[in-house]
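Re: nicotinamide-adenine-dinucleotide structure - here you go.
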Amino acid sequence: MTISRRDFVLASLAAPVSFKAVTRLSRQRPMQNSKLRVAKIGCGGMGNDDLRAVASHPMVEIVALCDVDRRSVDALRLGTKDKEGKAVPPKFPQAKGFADWRELFSTMEKDFDAVVVSTPDHMHAAISMAAMNMGKHVYCQKPLAHGAWENRRLAEVAATKPNIVTQMGTQRIATKWRRYGAKLMRDGVVGRVSDLYAWTNRPAGWWPQGGDRPQGSDPIPEWLSWDLFLGVSPERPYKDGYTPFNWRGTIDWGTGAFGDMGCHMLDVPFYELELGMPRSVRCDPEKATSDQYPERETVVVTYAAGPKTGANGLKLHWFDGGRFPDFRSLGLPEGWEGGKTAEEVVKGDGGVIAVGEKGVLWFPIEHAWSRVFVDGKPVEMTPKDLGASNHWHDWVDACLAGKKDACVSRFEKAGRLCESLSIGAVSSLDPGKELVFDASSCAFANSPTASRMLRRTPRAGWSVANL
Ligand SMILES: NC(=O)c1ccc[n+]([C@@H]2O[C@H](COP(=O)([O-])OP(=O)(O)OC[C@H]3O[C@@H](n4cnc5c(N)ncnc54)[C@H](O)[C@@H]3O)[C@@H](O)[C@H]2O)c1
């Protein structure tokens, strides 16, 4: 079947389908000899990488493609032209095309087994939860969801679904570098950890943060379904430049540098150090506005004591936008191999330093082995290659085998990590103040201003059962 431009527009304008339709349990197919039928939601940007990676598994069939940007779906289903004007054949001509994922879910309920969600962050929870409500397996990009409550609910509901396999898209966790770092943390090489220092070079030079809400409006491009892009988020007029990619600095849609990169950097420390929910968080930002996350910030998040933390708990010190920890004061050596300073070596794209009772562990984001330092000197260690796997294929294999707990970033774990990160991410809304997190109400006890982003009411007509 092909879908015309007119059908596509009609689908995108159609009245929202009843969520009764999408909350029924779908037929469970035996997976032994049949392919996993995957619906792909969000096909541009990382969505394209996710699509290629999942489709490269020999037991996957892509049955549906959905994007609010018609050009992404058309290129994949109907073909496109390259820069020289040469025809590029369609990669998935058999897949059905949609602008509205609700339409996809209601019309193809019996025709897909699993979804891969690669939309902007604000839509992750609604789409993933609606899919789980239908009994579908879900691979969802990081961060798992936008707000703390949504993250918590995805974790809780995933835990109640014995037949659903889930995975968050933090593919770096499956690399040999992070596996080795995870083992060092698990083995407690630096003893109980009192402080984690984490930094990223984002957002500077990557996407805008620290600005006021753009004024006025621009004409909505004919290829974009703007109302569907807004989805659960509050209505606002379209402006050029919001999408693709740049939406991540806007509080309504993204989670800023902290929520974005924190998933890649803090997943292993969070899991291996068995951290619970934050007790408090304080943000010292530069250029924080009510519309966008700050241009740069330092955030301190405190955690209660646990078996792997210091006796007084653990402090996470987060730096972004060009701010970095004072590396010299953290117990790194003055010099390094190759004549570089320690600072030059560790800065990179971002990383984590764990300060423990016996020494310091540098845990790079990727492409380097973790290192341990004691009294400012590197400890001689031979890194152990624990192998790597394909994060997307791990999920497909687990779906086919019905192994719910096989995925390393399953929602039960990822939801708790991302709940914690989203609490840190919104702290710039009430800067310079120690915000006390009350886990039972999922709110800050002393900040209604920042609490409103922890549990947000969806736009009228966009609520999903279980959220
Ligand atoms: N794991 C990684 O390494 C990695 C890297 C980049 C991005 N990401 C994550 O992937 C997600 C997408 O990021 P991106 O950089 O690709 O953004 P992007 O804006 O480039 O792409 C998002 C795509 O989703 C589409 N879209 C938007 N709203 C939609 C909706 N409601 N329904 C269907 N399609 C919709 C857009 O049109 C676009 O094609 C984000 O959550 C981001 O954090 C992960």
